[in-house]
Structure formats: C-alpha cells, structure tokens
Amino acid sequence: MYEIRSAGPKGLGVFAKSLIPRGTRIFSERPLLSLRPDQSSSDIYTVSRLLPPKHRASLLSLSSHITSELRFLRWNQALWYTLKALLKNFPYLLPRYCHFEPQRPGAFSTRNSLREHVDVLSIFRSNSFNVNSEGIYQAVFEGISRINHACVPNSQGNWSEGSGRFNVHATRDIAKDEEVSLSYLSDFAALREARVEKLRSGYGFDCGCPACDLGSESGRIGEEKRVGVRTLLGNYAESVKGGGDIDPNRELDTMMQFIKMLEGEAITGREVASMYLEVAELNEGLGRREEALRCAERAEEIDRACLGTDHEGYETTRKFVDRLRGETGKTYEL
Ligand SMILES: C[S@@+](CC[C@H](N)C(=O)[O-])C[C@H]1O[C@@H](n2cnc3c(N)ncnc32)[C@H](O)[C@@H]1O
Fold first, then answer.
1. pLDDT tens digits, residue range 110-138?
2. CA nearest ligand 1 atom 26, residue
3. CATH code assigned at 296
4. Which of 65, 123, 181 to mutate to test the pocket of ligand 1 (most atoms within 8 A of CB)?
5. CA 59 centroid distance within chain
6. CA 305 to CA 150: how far, in whole Å?
7. Domain ends where: 169, 188, 203?
8. So what's the pLDDT on residue 102?
9. How far is residue 22's CA from residue 42's CA, in Å, rounded to a whole number?
10. Does residue 191 fall inside a structural domain?
11. Whole-structure pTM over 0.80, yes or no?
12. From the CA atom positions of the chain, what is the Rg in Å?
C-alpha cells in the first residue's frame, strides 16, 4: 500500500504505492519506545537501553533533525543526566551531605556514552507523538515516525486503548505516489506564523506545505479563513468571560462556523467528529432532535473513517447515534 523512500529535503517519507481510499488503516503499530505520564525526558535514555537489540537498532536508525541551538540544549541535558548516573553509581564521589540511592551494580556502564544519550534524546524529540492515553504519554514508532508533516494532512493517527496500538488512517483519498502526511500540531486553526515557529523550534524545519504557501490562492484563502475563525472564537470567549448565561444558539453558531472552516480546508479528523458530537448534544438540549441526529451521524461517519469500527471511540459515537435514532424514530440505515 505504501513505501518508505526519499522525500527530498524532508529526509525519508511515506508514499502511496496505489490509491489509498479515505478510511483505510495505513499503519497499526505498537510503540518502539514510549514514556508513561509519570516519566520525563530524563527517563528516555534509560528506557531505550532496556530495548531488545533489534528495536534499539530501529530506534537509532530514525532521523533527528535538530538545530545547533537544540543540539546544545540536548548536550547539556545529557551531560546532566550522565553526571547524575555517575554519582548514583559511585556515591563515594559525592560530598558527604548529598544522599543518592546507589543503583543496582553494573547499571551504569562506560557504554552509557554521552553522544548516544544526545542521539536518543534528539531522536525521541524529532519522532515522538503525543499519545496521551492512560498508560502512555509519548511514543516513537518504527513506520509511523517516518511520516512527514503537512498543516493540512491527508491522514491522522489515533491511539487505541483497547489494542495498545497507534493507528494511522487516511482522512481523504491519497493518490498513487502522493506522500502520506500527518499534522504534528494540535491547533488546526493556528496561523502560519505560529505554525512555523512551533515546527522550527520543535522539529527543526521550515514548513513548505501548500497551506503555508501564502503566495498561492488556496494558501492565502485558507489563512484568511483561519483568521476569521480565530476572531470568531475570540469574540465568543470574550462574550462568556463575564460568567453570564451562555447563549446556546451563539455557541452552536460559533462551533458550526469552526467546523465549516475545518471541513472547507479538508481537515476531517477526530477533532471535527468531536465538534459534531458537541453540536449534536447542544441541538438535543434545544429539542432539535433531527438536527442532533444529522450532526451525530456525520460524527459517526468521520469516526469510522479516522478511527475504524473496532475503536472504542467509534463505539461510543455509534451508541450515541443509535440512541438518537431510537428517539427520533428513524429506521436504521447502513
Ligand atoms: C517524524 S520525522 C519524519 C520522517 C523523517 N523525514 C525521516 O527521514 O525519518 C520528523 C522529521 O522529518 C522532517 N520533516 C517532517 N515534515 C517535514 C516537512 N513538512 N518539511 C521538511 N521537513 C520535514 C523534519 O526534519 C522532522 O524533524
């Protein structure tokens, strides 16, 4: 379905070998390396050393594109952790008033090289995805971590708690030879300047995707829509700041305009499905059952495409739709 090959200045990338229809599960992977919510970057190197050799080799083969400024920071970080490990293992080096628990004998080895530590930190930073599940906070994957970024991507990754896998689905048809892309950013309404800054500081590249090309008509129009939506959201936030009654009609209208902007930009992932679900609930609260059902059905259709029918999130949406169908007396259509 796909191949991993050169994507020019981006390094490697994932490309469709044939048409990948919307809703196709392109990847389903368990993490190569992951951090739990209670772990921090100081644990990355330690966790990486516990990997089986094959997985460790896969990890070390991933790209790490970082700026010299970031490299400097990583060296400082690695130096500090290495020093801490050294002191834990050789406590007699410590001044008498410092008390570290010594680690198990042999846990610290001279192979615990500073350079490798820097590399692992850089690789983790360049390739990890926020999973935000109960057991895993961030994770790196063997194939998925080869997917490059686009501000308007053609696929989306979602963690499945039930299967313990990160699944990447096509959120629109991906043509043969087209590059598969994901968004590394969480704010889909972010303006170009903010996106550029995040991608440059977080991943060390300048995004040249069509949405960032403000010289093109589509890039410019997309940006204008984002400005419009941000103004709308800002005005709405201002209107509810005083803590007065929230006008559900205004809330509905604001959300629908946000959804329209995202769909107009061909952004149809989980976030849009969640917004449709909220709009459905608002409509239900206002007694507009038919409208609620219409929005919930759209959410179900999007969730089916970007999560798959075996995903627990899809199941919740489907049950909600079923309930509304029962209440509106609509016959079940597949
Ligand atoms: C998760 S990796 C993606 C796979 C990577 N290209 C490789 O060769 O393994 C992230 C890195 O890929 C590069 N990259 C991703 N998206 C890019 C884009 N739109 N433009 C330029 N470089 C990009 C950056 O160097 C970034 O740090």
1. 445 677 888 888 899 899 998 888 888 89
2. 203
3. 1.25.40
4. 65
5. 19
6. 19
7. 203
8. 42
9. 39
10. yes
11. yes
12. 23
Q: Which two tokens stand for residue 91?
A: 């406590």
The predicted pLDDT at position 239 comes to: 82
Q: Cα(113)–Cα(75) distance, rounded to whole angstroms? A: 11
pLDDT confidence of residue 176: 98
Is the CB of residue 122 below 6 angstroms from any atom belonging to ligand 1? no
In a domain, 155, yes or no: yes
Domain CATH code at residue 135: 2.170.270.10
Give me the residues of the chain with pLDDT under 70, please: 66-74, 77-78, 85-113, 329-334
Residue nearest atom 19 of ligand 1, based on CA coordinates:
149
Pocket test for ligand 1, best of 14, 59, 148 (most atoms within 8 A of CB): 148
Distance of alpha carbon 299 from alpha carbon 276, whole angstroms: 5
185 shares its domain with 287: no
- pLDDT of 133 reads 84
What pLDDT score was predicted for residue 158? 95
The domain of 300 spans 269-334
Q: Is 10 in the pocket of ligand 1 (CB under 6 A)?
A: yes
